[in-house]
Predict the structure of Reverse transcriptase.
Amino acid sequence: MEVNLNKSYCLAFSLIHQTLDLQLTYKGTQIPLCDKLKYLEVVFDHKLTWKPHVEDIFNRATKRIKALQCLAEARWGCSGGILLQTYYTFILPLLTYRCQPLVVAGKNVLHTLEKIQNQSLQCCWGSKDHPDRLHAYGDW
């Protein structure tokens, strides 16, 4: 096995408020410390709050929601079924893939994901004025 030192970083998980002064070296080369790290599409931060991970999901899903809104607002129109299938294909996998660590995330962090899901379903069902109707249609 070969280690690429240009892509290697050290992330120390700790709940203390002091900065850790770690000096990790491999074959004489010091490995730099970082505050957050993306590994297999999961963003880890040093306190395991999962906020950077949810922000990453939010940013990626927002771009896809804009595409979904363009489909919904098109002059030729898209049926609700096609919009919902587009949601299931392009947005829902972002919310469900890599979601196991979010079991321990705070409520304010999870609220961000709920906003994304509500925006998507509002776009599909056209019920921006009545978001409470979404509970009847979505996979809750």
